[in-house]
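Quick one: structure tokens for this chain, please?
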Amino acid sequence: MRVLSIDGGGIRGLIPAVVLAEVERRTNRRISELFDLIAGTSTGGILACGLTAPSPEDPSRPRYRAEELIGLYEEEGPRIFARSLLKRIFSVQGLFDERYEADGLDRALARYLGDARLSETLTPVFITAYDLQERSAFFFRSERARRDPDRDDYTLADAARATAAAPTYFEPVEVRPVGADDDARGRPLIDGGVFATNPAMCAYAEVLRDPEARVELVASLGTGELTRPIPIAEARWWGQLQWARPVLDAVFDGVADTVDFQLDRLLPLGGYVRLQTELRLASDDLDDASADNLARLREEAERLVAARDADLDALCARLTA
């Protein structure tokens, strides 16, 4: 089994989108053809859906090339992360309400994913979310959707919206299986990044549910390593209000690094490939969709591709062997 895992990171999903476009260019193959399972959290979950959604014209072919999904960030990003003056005032920068209305995100997901379903993905996907009612992790699984469509099949737009519902940024969303009655209780979900910013370990465990499965490769794509320090002189005086945003960033970053450590130790040499870069030029904010920062994020991605050129060549050779 060859597994692709894509981290969460909001607008910074532009970085793995550029890397995936480079993989498709070097292999002359679509990402959905190169992997047996694609896992994603938040922005990574959106990419997983976009890369595996079938084309309306030819359901045997993917709807998008990775290059086309870059437009989701560069064109739709400024609309997704846009706030009216009224929203800025009443949310108090996200302290008393979510920072953004979900209208821009919903429109982008509807435009890119249409009515495609989880059961229809060309490659199985594994997308993380967190259930507020059950207080437990929840996973959108293509394989489960195909086995029991009435109970476990969701639209890709709903799955993407749920995994992207980052606390303080977007409100939670309630989703229902496509076969559910209108009065059936939905699942109230938020971003799976609260427990799996890097979903590679979850995907690895999912594959190992089959005792006969063998994981040949886990390729894990990051959305940029945080480098901005939190000064202890400031943090020692912070309470709940001041920690609200920094602690979310720290949890997301810490979880991603922990999974990286675990899989690097668990998998044999060459079995785990992590493509990640430090954010030296671009902002590490999840929602900085300014034209300047989008250009810097693309520059970060291109710098990563150049720095890991040999590793990318080796990865592409393995994927096409």
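The beta strands are 2-6, 37-40, 125-131, 136-141, 173-175, 187-191, 217-221, 272-275.
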